[in-house]
Amino acid sequence: MKILQARNFFKKELPFKPFYINSCGYFCDIDFDTKTERPLGRSDFQLICMTAGKMAIQLDGSECIMQKDNFYLFKPGEPQIYRCSKEDNSAYFWIHFNGTMAEEILRDNNLCDGNIHTYLSSKEDIRLIQKIISEINQKTSSYQISLLGLFSQLITRISRHTSDKEKKDLYAQLAPAISAMENVDKAYTVSEYAKMCNMSVYHFSHKFKTCTNQSPMQYQNKIAMNHAAYLLKSTDLSIGEISAVIGVSDPLYFSKKFKKAFGVSPTEYRS
């Protein structure tokens, strides 16, 4: 087993209250069974990121498996029980940290929800951990500020990999509804879109806005208005005919919606 680690001992008052790392390390080539048990948790945050093998972790009374490219964030006071088996040849890095800015940094990077997440770990992550360890061990001038910068880089990398993957997964779940919206010949209700995705209306609407930054009806309306604008410029269809094509039975209502979307009436847009 190979170990790289550093501990930040503070003799008196904290040198940099906004953010500080208590300890961190990187364990790799684990060749014996290990187990950590902290039923009452710690007073700080702990981030664990798997880079090889797997780890069994107790969450809400059940044992979950973290595999390569998984990470988990323990909050202060959250029970910590996890283990690695020698057969798995696991590797992971960890950071214990805290400070008045710590939770804000995590929240800004969407890392406060207490779930096991997936991200694409890389040698760059290990390099950042090694630099953090080196800064703590050397304690050169302004090293606490340097730690904040290095930690922010690491969290940003993890957050971007995580959000990109989760957004792709979310888009795949919503694909049936989005595909139906792009077929402007027929408009559906939110309830019908939710049913296409096997979701409740509440969860569908929430996930849809998370994915697109728009409500389902706003997204559907935007697609319809863009298609209407295309038809106005590329065909000789009347405004009433275009209104019917996008599923709006009243041409006057269509004109009102179009002006709200583009700032001009359909007639003005065509000319």
Structure description:
- This protein is an alpha+beta fold.
- The protein has 2 domains: 164 residues, Jelly Rolls (Sandwich), CATH 2.60.120; 89 residues, Arc Repressor Mutant, subunit A.
- Helix content is 46%, strand content 22%.
- The chain contains 9 helices and 10 strands.
- A 6-stranded antiparallel sheet has the order 1-2-9-4-7-10, with helices on one face. It has a 4-stranded antiparallel sheet with strand order 3-8-5-6, with no helix packed on it.
- α3 crosses α5.
- The radius of gyration is 26 Å and the shape is elongated.
- The model has no long low-confidence stretch (mean pLDDT 88).
Could you give a quick summary of the protein structure above?
The chain has about 270 residues and is of the alpha+beta class.
Question: Helices, strands, pairings?
Answer:
Layout: E1 2-7, E2 20-28, E3 34-38, E4 45-52, E5 54-59, E6 62-67, E7 70-74, E8 80-84, E9 91-98, H1 102-108, E10 117-118, H2 123-138, H3 143-182, H4 190-196, H5 201-212, H6 216-234, H7 239-245, H8 251-262, H9 266-270
Antiparallel strand pairs: 1-2, 2-9, 3-8, 4-7, 4-9, 5-6, 5-8, 7-10
Helix pairs in contact: 2-3, 3-5, 4-5
List keywords for this structure.
single chain; 271 residues; alpha+beta; Jelly Rolls; Arc Repressor Mutant, subunit A; 2 domains; 6-stranded antiparallel β-sheet; 4-stranded antiparallel β-sheet; 9 helices; 10 strands; 46% helix; 22% strand; elongated
